[in-house]
Specification:
Keywords: Carbohydrate metabolism, Glycosidase, Hydrolase, Polysaccharide degradation, Xylan degradation. The chain is mainly β. The chain has two domains: 259 residues, Glycosyl hydrolase domain, family 43 (Tachylectin-2, Chain A, 5 Propeller), CATH 2.115.10; 123 residues, Galactose-binding domain-like (Jelly Rolls, Sandwich), CATH 2.60.120. It has no helices and 31 strands. Strands 21, 24, 26, 27, 28 and 30 form a six-stranded antiparallel β-sheet that branches. Strands 1-2-3-4 form a four-stranded antiparallel β-sheet, with no helix packed on it. β3 and β4 form a beta hairpin. The radius of gyration is 22 Å and the shape is globular. It binds beta-L-arabinofuranose (FUB). Beta-L-arabinofuranose (FUB) binds next to β1 and β13.
Length: 442
C-alpha cells in the first residue's frame, strides 16, 4: 500500500508512471477513457488547495497520455463560473465522467443548483467536438434532482446505446440515455444485487460481461467492490472487494483497457496527508480465467511505458531565472556552476515576475517550473496575467541544490510576447532555476 508520504521525491525523467501520477495539482475521482486519437484521457475532480472539505472542488482539468507514463495537463475544461444554473457560491464540482457519441464529447458532472447544496444536486452536461478543450455547458439532465445525485458514469455500449449510472448515500441508479445524450429514455431504476454500495459507480464491459465497480461504506477507509451482469442495467451479481483502503477516507476509480493492458485509476492522499487533497494513481488490474478481478496491488512505481516517449514540444521556450525580476525578500543567487536561481520566495511580500513571455498564437500553454527543494512538500502560487492558478505542489528533490524538480500546469496565455507570470511562495523554501512554456496544439 502506498500511503507513506515521507519518501515521495520528484523525478524529472520517469521510467514508470510513479504513484501518484499527477503531482503538481491535486486530482481525484479519475474517469479514464481511450478515444479514437489513440490516447488515453483522465477526466478528474480537482481538489483546490487549500481545501475546505469538498466545498471548494472546482476547475476540472483533463490529462492525456500516449504511453501511460508521461501525462499532459490539457488544462481546465469547466469551472463552476461557467455553469449558469449552478449554486451562486460555486465550488462543489464533484466526480465527473466523459462519453463520446456521434462526433461529440459529453462531459457529465455533479453540481448543486442551490446554496442548499446537499438537496439540490443535478447532473450537468457540457459538450465539445474535442476531447479536452472547448467544452460548453448544455444545462442539466431534466427530471432528476436532490440528495446524493452524484458520481455520474456513462457507458456507451457496442450497439451505441448509452447508459448512465450515479448514486451516493447507499443507492445506485442506472438508466438509458436518449440519442441526444442529454436526457433519459425511461428514467432511472435502482441497480439490484450490489453489496454495501456507497458511491463512485463505474461501469465497463469485457468479453460481453458488464462490470459495476463502486466504493463501499467501510468507515473512513472505503474499499472498492464490484459486481457483474449480462445486462447493462442488471440485476447484478456481487463479486467482492478488489481494492483495499488507500489510506484516504474516500475511494473512487475507473477500470480501463489501453493497448491490451487493463488498469485501475484511483486516488490516494499520499502527497498531502489530507483526505480532501487527493492525487490520482494508476496500477495494473488483472482478471482471473473466470472473469473475476484479482485484488489490485497499490504500488509507488505505478505502471511501465506502453508506447514511445512523446517528443519535446518544438515550440517550447525556456526562460532562465536570471531573466526574471525579484521583489521583496526574493533573491537571485549564483550557484557554483555559474547558473542563477531565484530563492527566498517564501518571505512575506516576496515575488518574482517573468515579463514579456511569448504566448505564440495564444490559448493553452503548459508552464513548467524547474526547481530544487529539500522540503518534503513545498508550494508556490502562480498567477498568469493576474489569473490565479495557485497552488502548485513542488515535491522534494532530495536537496536544496538538486534542480531535478518539475511542477507544471496548463494555463491560458495571450498571443505574442506580452504575458506576465508572477510567482510567490506558497509554502516552504524553494529555488527556481528556469521556467518553460509550451503551447498545446490541438
Ligand atoms: O470527490 C468528491 C466525492 O468524494 C466524490 O463525488 C465521491 O465519489 C468521493 O470521491
Amino acid at each position: 500500500m502506498s500511503n507513506n508520504n515521507q519518501d515521495i521525491i520528484v523525478e524529472s525523467k520517469k521510467r514508470t508512471s510513479l504513484n501518484p501520477v499527477i503531482t503538481s495539482i491535486y486530482t481525484a475521482d479519475p474517469s479514464a477513457h481511450v478515444w479514437s486519437d489513440g490516447k488515453i484521457y483522465i477526466y478528474a475532480s480537482h481538489d483546490m488547495d487549500p481545501a475546505r472539505g469538498c466545498d471548494l472542488m472546482d476547475r476540472y482539468h483533463v490529462f492525456s497520455s500516449q504511453d501511460m507514463v508521461n501525462w499532459v495537463d490539457e488544462g481546465e475544461i469547466l469551472s463552476s463560473d461557467d455553469v449558469a444554473w449552478g449554486r451562486p457560491e460555486g465550488g462543489f464540482m464533484w466526480a465527473p465522467d466523459c462519453a463520446y457519441k456521434n462526433g461529440t464529447y459529453y462531459f457529465y458532472y455533479p453540481h448543486p443548483s442551490d446554496s442548499n447544496w446537499n438537496d439540490s444536486w443535478k447532473i450537468g452536461v457540457a459538450t465539445s467536438k474535442k476531447p479536452a478543450s472547448d467544452f460548453t455547458d448544455q444545462g442539466y439532465i431534466p427530471g432528476l434532482g436532490g440528495f446524493a445525485l452524484i458520481d455520474p458514469c456513462v457507458l456507451v455500449d457496442e450497439d451505441d446505446r448509452a447508459y448512465m449510472y450515479y448514486g451516493g448515500g447507499s443507492t445506485c441508479l442506472g438508466g438509458e440515455l436518449n440519442e441526444d445524450m442529454l436526457s433519459l429514455k425511461n428514467g432511472m431504476t435502482e441497480m439490484e444485487g450490489l453489496e454495501d454500495f456507497h458511491e463512485a459507480a463505474w461501469v465497463f464491459k469485457r468479453n460481453g460481461l458488464y462490470y459495476l465497480t463502486y466504493a463501499d461504506n467501510l468507515e473512513d477507509n472505503n474499499r472498492m467492490r464490484y459486481a457483474t451482469s449480462e445486462n447493462p442495467l442488471g440485476p447484478w451479481m456481487y463479486r467482492g472487494i478488489f481494492l483495499e483502503p488507500t489510506g484516504c477516507s474516500t475511494t473512487h476509480g475507473s477500470v480501463v483497457e489501453f493497448k491490451d493492458q487493463w488498469y485501475l485509476f484511483y486516488h490516494n492522499q499520499s502527497i498531502s496527508g489530507e483526505g480532501n487533497l487527493r492525487s490520482v494513481c494508476i496500477d495494473y488490474l488483472e482478471f482471473n480465467e473466470d472473469g473475476t478481478i484479482k485484488p489490485v496491488i497499490q504500488t509507488k512505481e505505478g505502471v511501465s511505458s506502453i508506447g514511445t516517449t512523446p517528443e519535446v514540444n518544438p515550440y517550447l521556450k525556456t526562460y532562465p531565472a536570471a531573466d526574471c525580476m525579484v521583489f521583496g525578500g526574493a533573491e537571485i543567487q549564483t550557484l557554483e556552476s555559474g547558473q542563477q536561481v531565484v530563492s527566498h520566495l517564501q518571505t512575506e511580500g516576496s515575488y518574482v515576475l517573468f515579463n514579456n513571455i511569448e504566448g505564440g498564437e495564444g490559448g493553452r500553454a503548459s508552464i513548467e517550473l524547474h526547481y530544487a527543494t529539500s522540503e518534503r512538500l513545498a508550494k508556490v502560487n502562480l498567477y498568469v496575467n493576474d489569473k490565479d492558478y495557485s497552488l502548485l505542489n513542488a515535491l522534494s528533490t532530495g536537496g536544496a541544490q538538486q534542480f531535478s524538480g518539475r511542477t507544471n500546469i496548463t494555463v491560458n496565455v495571450l498571443p505574442g510576447a506580452i504575458n506576465t507570470l508572477r510567482i510567490t511562495g506558497g509554502h516552504g523554501e524553494i529555488s527556481i532555476i528556469q521556467m518553460t512554456i509550451s503551447p498545446l496544439v490541438d
